[in-house]
Every structure is written in structure tokens, then in C-alpha cells.
């Protein structure tokens, strides 16, 4: 008598996004009977960002203000510990992004959806995990969404403050108005308001390409000053006390972690299969990030020592035209990059209100939301007391959860009972990453709050 082939467990899918639906799929027998499902073939026509465009977006998201903060991170760790730590954190971040995207792509095939965002992936994985954790699916989604929103709004605030301080330094040096940083923050609205009205990633590709070029020029100028008349290496610390490590980790996570824009970029790709693999968009981007971050952090701390600021360009000489040019170029890069980072919180907010607004007014409502968001972020940036401490706090709280903890957890849940069990090495590897994330978050928040209190 022929044995009946057992059916796979049903995949429950409840979503609320651009591909909204409520589906229950139960696979009986072989999936090949229905033919293979290729998510990329079912994506909307608007999802046509090239692999080059995706690489430009990912590099721009990871190489914004972050690379300029690395000398500050090295100050808290020392030259030797900073180099080793940068490589380790880069490896961990790249690996965690890889498992998040891979899980999402596998899930798209299972539930037959063209694309899934970060929050969608977490929610569906929890819905189909072991029974005791299924009730936490909606909580996981909300945690991801609001953490992403807060993280990217924080990054946008940092951008505005750096832009304002850069223009103010140049203005004061050359006899311009000596206004407060708050006034210069307000002036950024002249550019940010029209720029943030762009609501499709593919239209941001030209801005990313231009920003990458301008950024490269400004970083080369900054590196020139870092390498000019460098002090003896013995004058800098090879390692600092253990108290500096949490701050190093928080600042490095803030600088290096671009996980918030990973899924939107992958979801808009014409050939998403080229995002992972070797070489792949992700591997190229993360390799460039680690090398450049380590080099800038090392040379920046070597040159400026304990006087380094949250943005390297703010340490450049104020009486040299070339140095002032670098400050202006970095400010321009951040203006262009603002729209890409701003894409994430706007998308999260729009998904929660679009069903309450008549369809015929969606276009005006989206424009209003983007205008309000821009005004809110610029207003918040005016109230940021200290750039360095703000970066540490955002990195410690939001990016420890988003960039390390949640992707590791969802891989365990997704693969549990499929190809891994309690003793599998992947489980222990992910638990180690989770432990590292929790330690980084708790210690980072503790030291950031302590520093804030000392500066009151």
C-alpha cells in the first residue's frame, strides 16, 4: 500500500501594507505541482531600481554622517581596539542583514507575495512560529515599525544639526551672519521641503549618485587633513578603559547600521536575487563600509586625538578654504541624503493613515504628511543639546534591537522545526548575537544617560 505524503503546515498570512491581503495557504503534496513562484516576476512595474541604483542607495544610507563619526568611536576604544572592533561589528552587521533579507525572500516564496518589508517579515514569521509566541506577532510588527521610525527620524535630526553647524562655521569665518545653530537649522527647510516631496525611490537614484560623488570628494579632503602632519602614533591610546567600549559600540552601530533602508531597497529592485550572494550588492556595500570606516576612524583619531567631534569635518581648520569647502560639501551630501532616510518614517506613518483618507485626496495627504514630517524633524533638531550623545543613545537603543536582536530572533523562529533544533549551531550563534545586542543596549544607554547628566 502506498504511503500518503504528509502535508506541510499551513502558512497563515495577515498583512496590512501595499500588497494587502488575507490569505491562508495549505500545501498538500509537492509544491512543484503548482510551479515555482518567483516573487520578482510579480512585483509592480514601479519596482525597477537597478542593482547599481540599489548599491548607490545602500552605500549612501550607510555612508552618511556615520563615517564622519568614526573618529569619535575610536576615541572611546583606542586605535588597536577600534580597528578590531570595527571589523567585528561590520561582520556582525553584514551577517545580520543577510539573514534578514534571506528570511524575507524565502518567506515571499512560501506565502506567494512579491515583496515583504521588515515589519511584514517579523509579523508573518511570528504568526507561523511555535504556538506560544504567535500572540506576539502584532507586538513584533509594532516594535519594528516604531523603532525604524524613531531611528531614522533621529538620523535625520543628526543630519540637520551637522548641516546647520557646518554652514554656521563657514558663515562666521567669512563675515556672514553669526546666527545661532537653531536659525541655520530652520534655513535647511528651503531645500528639504521640496526635496522630501519625492515619494518614489527610483527618482532618488540621481540624487544618490550625485551625493556619492560629492561625498567622495569631501571625504578625500577630510582624509587629507587627517594625514597632514600626523602626530606620532605613541601619542594616542591603543586601548582605553572598559568604560569606553559601550560608547564605541553604540557610535559604531549608529554609523554603520543601515538596516532600516535594506528592505525598501531590496523590495524596489528589478533583480532582487542580486542583492545577496557573491559578490552581490550587500557584500560589496558592507566591504566598502568596513574598510572606509576603519580608515577614517583610525586617521581621524590619530590626527585630532581627544578633541574629535561627532562629525569629522567640524574639526577641520576654520581658516583654510579647502577645509571650509569640505564642510560645505558634506552639508550638501546630507541634504541630498535626507530624502532617502526620510522615506522610512513617512512610509510607516502613511500605512497607518491611508485607509482613513479618501482615495482621491491621497496625493495631497501624502504631500501634507511629508511637509509635516520635515517641519517636525527640523524643529526637533533645534532642541538636540549635544550631537555626540544623541547618536550614542539612538545607536544603543534602536539599532541594537533593529540591527542585531530582531533579525537573529526571527531566523530562529522561521527555521525552528524545519531544519534546526535546540542543539543546532545556528540557534547558539543567534543567541550569542542576541546576548551581545542586549549587553550593548543596556550598557550604551547607561553610559549615554550618565554623560548627559554630567553635561547638564
Automatic annotation (TrEMBL):
One of its GO terms (cellular component) is vacuolar membrane. The keyword Transmembrane applies. The chain crosses the membrane at residues 79-101, 143-167, 179-196, 203-225, 245-263, 275-301, 321-346, 367-387, 393-414, 426-449. It is found in: Membrane. It comes from the Eukaryota. GO terms for molecular function: L-amino acid transmembrane transporter activity. Keywords: Membrane, Transmembrane, Transmembrane helix. Residues 48-449 form the Amino acid transporter transmembrane domain. Pfam families: Aa_trans. It is a multi-pass membrane protein. This is Proton-coupled amino acid transporter-like protein pathetic. It comes from Bombyx mandarina.
